[in-house]
Amino acid sequence: MRSALSHLECSKCGSRYDADAPQQLCRCGAPLLARYDLRSAAQTFTRKNIAAREPSLWRYAELLPLRDMLHRVSLNETMTPLAQLSAFGSEIGLSDLRLKDDGALPTGSFKARGAAIGVSRAKELGIGRFGMPTNGNAGGAWSAYGARAGVEAYIVMPRSAPAIHRLECAMTGAHLFLVNGLIGDAGRIIGKAVTECGLYDASTLKEPYRIEGKKTLGFEIVEQLHWNVPDVLLYPTGGGVGIIGIYKALMELRETGLIGEKLPRMVAVQAEGCAPIVRACHERKRESQTWQDPHTIAFGINVPKALGDFLVLDAIYATGGTAIAVSNGAMERLQRRLAETEGLLICPEGAATLAAAQQLREQGWIAANEVVVAINTGSGLKYGDVPYPQPRLLERDADLPIA
Fold first, then answer.
1. With contact defined as beta carbons under 8 Å apart, do 4 and 41 qualify?
2. Per-residue pLDDT tens for 178-200?
3. Burial class, 225, CB count within 10 angstroms (exposed 0-12 / middle 13-18 / buried 19+)
4. Cα–Cα distance between 63 and 80 in angstroms, integer?
5. Which of 347, 354, 374 is nearest to 162 (CA)?
6. Residue among 318, 158, 177 at smallest CA distance from 238
7. Residue 167: which H helix or E strand, with range?
8. Nearest to residue 244, comparing CAs of 188, 313, 194, 295?
9. Beta strand ranges found along 166-306 (DSSP E)
10. Dihedral, CA atoms, 361, 269, 112, 56, nearest 10 degrees?
11. Residue 84: beta bridge partners?
């Protein structure tokens, strides 16, 4: 199992860069994407070979950027469940609704995918410290993997980020700073430190390897569907790396012959209080405009302007997909309803994808018999401030009131 990594390529102007030197953005300011010798990779990147490997994201080594597995930084991440939501699916009129539950990963979120690959590659390239702004989960994941690798982490997050995320970063030894502002403000602080102090910038899409970890979501979903693609795939979209990565994975699978021409209709799900991608999609724009006064309970998708918004929109348009915004109330309702019907505790961002599935089914955009995959990006246990039914207090000698 050897990486077929060839070079880095600008997502806008097509300029090529050396993949074996630390790189950030292209000179034109756009993100760089890892490219592979797919013809060479196809010799060993086969269904049979992949099935015989360890059940983790590392099973896709030919299409991952790590040159030498001795540099692998792992917290024992595993393939995550693709759960059939029979009860809830029936309730909203879908016969085959599934949830890809990345809350089962180390640090309790899908951010472990990007951190595992991003930190491993940083270590391999000799990077000793990095900085990043975060709304929470990414900071926790990169801090944990940084600690495992012995790579120093500088993390800046909004002061309003959930306490559990601050705890994760602090306990894993990161240099943690809070800012009175939003993630854009945190990003400006990190950007200044990158320029003045030489930090490696691990911000969303400002290094090329986080997306390579996120794309393993696409590999896993297709493999778990017996090398078929779903009809519809819903993704909670903030910075958009996940939806970009899944689309990239699908393109690579198609070019290596592991899937056919069919692609899922990709749906970017945002919050009504912060929906720049939705607005741009409905106006058929190539890029979004900064969302003013953003607010949502789904902290992970509270991103007023994504650096890679044009790549998200490209993926939507290329697959005949769409973008949709859901309310805070819908997220809270679906979060609780899924727990009641399926026993799954998911994050608000994951609940947003289910609310979107329900709305799109009601509109007829999703047919009753289509295979629909929604992505849950984190464990609901990391969100202790979500409203939940309060328990009843009993006296010590009370009888249990059973209806």
1. yes
2. 999 988 899 999 999 999 999 99
3. middle
4. 19
5. 347
6. 158
7. helix 163-171
8. 313
9. 175-179, 200-201, 232-236, 265-271
10. 30
11. 98
The Cα–Cα gap between 270 and 250 comes to 22
Q: Does residue 84 contact residue 98 with C-beta atoms inside 8 Å?
A: yes
d(CA 351, CA 28): 37
Average pLDDT of span 378-390: 78
- Domain locations in the chain? 1-66, 82-104+215-382
230 vs 228: CA distance, rounded Å: 7
DSSP 266: E
Q: Which tokens belong to 62?
A: 């030919």
Residues in the chain: 403
Please report which residue ranges of 177-240 form alpha helices under DSSP H: 183-197, 210-214, 216-224
Identify the CATH number of the domain defined by range 82-104+215-382.
Answer: 3.40.50.1100
Task: Judge whether 381 and 339 are in contact, CB under 8 Å.
Answer: no
Strands of 16-17's sheet, edge to edge? Answer: 16-17, 5-10, 32-36
Centroid of chain to Cα 2: 25
Residues 344/379, Cβ–Cβ less than 8 Å: no
This prediction has a pTM of 0.94
> Which tokens sit at 73?
């930084």
- Distance (Å, rounded) from C-alpha 187 to C-alpha 189? 5
Joined together, the tokens standing for residue 46 give: 């086969």
Pick from 158, 208, 212: nearest CA to 185: 158
d(CA 169, CA 138): 10
Q: Is the Cβ–Cβ distance between 25 and 9 less than 8 Å? A: no
CB 301, CB 352: distance < 8 Å: yes
The pair of structure tokens assigned to 171 is 């306990």
Are 192 and 224 a contacting pair, CB within 8 Å? Answer: no
Phi and psi angles of residue 305, each rounded to the nearest 5 degrees, phi first: -155, 115
pLDDT tens sequence across 280-320: 999 999 999 999 999 999 988 999 999 999 999 999 999 99
